[in-house]
């Protein structure tokens, strides 16, 4: 798993993922991924993220990008796709996250 080339939307390039800031005090999520027609959306809730460490903010962003890459939730705190809260341990894909990615994308 190497780097992911993220290009901005332009006249000749259609965005696959749109990332938006949010400030939702009543929400129960720090990051939210949704698949919409034509593209995916990642919402980052600064109400929670403003108090997170850089390490944990990176973990939230990478978790949501994992969804955009078709990774599902895992019941393992030692994976990036752990879902029950933001106490996941890694802030980069664990071996099992990479295996899940490769099972879909090759
Ligand atoms: Zn998730």
Explain the layout of strands and helices.
Layout lengths: L16 E6 L8 E6 L2 E7 H4 L4 H15 L26 H11 L1
Parallel strand pairs: 1-3
Antiparallel strand pairs: 2-3
Bound molecules: zinc ion.
Zinc ion binds next to helix 2.
GO molecular function: metallopeptidase activity
Protein name: Matrixin
Describe this structure in words.
This protein has a three-stranded mixed β-sheet with strand order 1-3-2. It is an alpha+beta fold and 106 residues long. It starts with 16 loop residues before the first strand and ends with a helix. Helix content is 28%, strand content 18%. The longest helix is centred in the middle third of the chain and has 15 residues, at 54-68. The protein has one domain: Collagenase (Catalytic Domain). A hairpin with a 2-residue loop joins strand 2 (31-36) and strand 3. Zinc ion (ZN) binds at residues 63, 67, 73, 83. It comes from Actinopolyspora xinjiangensis. One of its GO terms (molecular function) is metallopeptidase activity.
């Amino acid at each position: 798993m190497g780097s992911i080339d993220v290009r901005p939307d332009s006249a000749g390039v259609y965005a696959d993922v749109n990332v938006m800031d949010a400030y939702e005090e009543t929400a129960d999520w720090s990051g939210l991924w949704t698949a919409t027609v034509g593209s995916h959306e990642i919402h980052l809730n600064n109400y929670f993220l403003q108090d997170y460490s850089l390490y944990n903010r990176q973990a939230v962003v990478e978790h949501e990008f994992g969804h955009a890459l078709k990774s599902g939730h895992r019941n393992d705190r030692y994976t990036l796709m752990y879902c029950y809260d933001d106490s996941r341990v890694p802030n980069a894909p664990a071996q099992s996250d990479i295996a899940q990615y490769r099972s879909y994308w090759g």
